[in-house]
């Protein structure tokens, strides 16, 4: 959200427009994605999910219609939308509301006892669809689809899977692990060999060095000052500059939690400057 206004009758919310449309439309246009495109996209999705889960927010309706693209259609710049069914949850308690979209819903949601890992199942379904153009659990109506989901058996039949790597299939199987306790969380999923191998996005060294130079002079020793800087930066830089900075940020944010730790910044300095920073 960029701005909001209020008059006697209404609130007006000025939000970003993502002119690239829905991922769902891109799936229909392409039929299926290359493994690299799918991996770049899913790494970003998992990073978003990881950030939400670390803040105890579960989305509960992840699907291609809720992933928006920029006009460039580049998959390292996406937005997840539609948090209407999301929830701030207590990690110590199970959720019991049965909601979601049949193709993407996790079996434990149908059984009305689940946690944030229902989002990981949905991501697994999305990967399956990206690589094959078909859902893993299909049927003529919602009832039949949900019956297949409850069974939870994933198959890689058909000619479209012959050219897909074993690592990609193993990644999908991990995300679609029936038992949520054995299913990886978002941070664990991001370390999967298939993602590590295929999801690298090239970032210009000059961009990274410039961002690091700015970081050297940044000292936010008061919460209000930090918030003010963040607001000013958000208003004054162009969208292109913001996208460039986002790429630098993602290159450094190796665990995808939406924050840069001291160690991640230190590694950035080492890899791009060739110098070791002291604490």
CATH topology of the largest domain: Transferase(Phosphotransferase), domain 1
* Binned strand content: 5-15%
Largest sheet: 2 strands, antiparallel
- Terminal Cα separation, in Å? 35 Å
How many independent structural domains? 2
Q: Roughly how many Å is the radius of gyration?
A: 20 Å
> Can you write the helix and strand succession as a string?
EEHHEEEEHHHHHHHHHH
Largest beta sheet: strand ordering: 1-2
Q: How many DSSP E strands?
A: 6
For the record, what CATH class of the largest domain applies? Mainly Alpha
Mean pLDDT: 90
Describe this structure in a few short sentences.
The protein is mainly alpha-helical and 279 residues long. It has helices at residues 23-30, 35-54, 107-110, 118-132, 142-151, 166-175, 186-189, 193-198, 205-216, 223-236, 239-252, 262-273; strands at 3-6, 11-14, 57-58, 67-69, 78-80, 87-88.
List keywords for this structure.
Recoverin, domain 1; two-stranded antiparallel sheet; 12 helices; mainly alpha; single chain; 279 residues
Overview of this structure, please?
The protein has 279 residues and is mainly alpha-helical. It has two domains: 23-198, Orthogonal Bundle (Transferase(Phosphotransferase), domain 1), CATH 1.10.510.10; 205-273, EF-hand (Recoverin, domain 1, Orthogonal Bundle), CATH 1.10.238.10. It is built from twelve helices and six strands. The chain has helices at residues 23-30, 35-54, 107-110, 118-132, 142-151, 166-175, 186-189, 193-198, 205-216, 223-236, 239-252, 262-273; strands at residues 3-6, 11-14, 57-58, 67-69, 78-80, 87-88. Strands 1-2 form a two-stranded antiparallel sheet. Strands 3-6 form a two-stranded antiparallel ribbon. Strands 4-5 form a two-stranded antiparallel sheet. Strand 4 (67-69) and strand 5 form a beta hairpin. The protein is globular, with a radius of gyration of 20 Å. It starts with a strand and ends in a 6-residue tail after the last helix.
